[in-house]
Amino acid sequence: MAERIMIILKFVFAVLLLPLVMATVFALQTEIARFDPKLQEAIISGTLAYVLMKFFVYDFDAVYKFGQSIVGACFQFLKPVMNFAPYVIPIYTIIAIVAYAIVHLMGNMEAYAGMFVAVIAFTFAMHVVLTAQDLYTKDSLAGKPNYFFAMSLIFIVDVFFMALLMSLVGKGFSFVHFFQGLSTASGDIYMAVFKQLFVR
Predict the structure, then answer these.
(1) Which of 40, 67, 86, 137 meets the CB 3.0–4.6 Å disulfide criterion with 71?
(2) What pLDDT band is residue 108 in, cutting at 50, 70 and 90?
(3) Contact between residue 93 and residue 120 where contact means Cβ atoms under 8 Å apart
(4) What's the CA gap between 84 and 93, in Å, rounded?
(5) Buried b vs exposed e over 60-88: b needs ≥16 C-beta within 10 Å?
(6) Dihedral angle over CA of 126, 128, 129, 134, nearest 10
(7) At what angle do helices 79-88 and 61-74 cross, to 10 degrees?
(8) What is the reported pTM?
(9) Between the CA atoms of 146, 151, 154 and 158, what dihedral angle is there, to the nearest 10 degrees?
(10) C-alpha closest to that of 60 among 151, 136, 122, 147
């Protein structure tokens, strides 16, 4: 009985998180639109490159799992965090962002900006897609309640974390604007749904 209640609650929470997921994507796209057009192209190219590689060449699953093992080892003394952190922390994306920041500080950013941004997009796409794939495979319950709930939450946290990092190193990306856009968009969606369901 308790297990069934938990399954139902996870479905409910997954549905409740859906507007927040949509608002997160909208806010991220809005901030990316502030980038130089060449950097926007690099983001699209990096993302598409991973998608094409996954479906036609190599999905980088072994690379992803190696990164997960590194993150897990870093949190091995915190058992609950150790199980969750590998899904939340996109280790390769963080490494790419740190490299981006170092090159920027060296004053040689212009020639390599597009390449670094493409790598950031590639690794983040890899993290999100393979995390979803891993969670989906591990959820054996009908309807995949664990998958939908966990993936919604992880996606929001991941994008939030990425927005924070990019605001520190990415010219033109504002975490404040991102958060404001996220708050406004999610509030509008929740309000629209509420009016549709309860206001006649």
Answers:
(1) 86
(2) low
(3) yes
(4) 17
(5) beeebeebbeebbeebeeeeeeeebbbbb
(6) 110
(7) 140
(8) 0.86
(9) 170
(10) 122
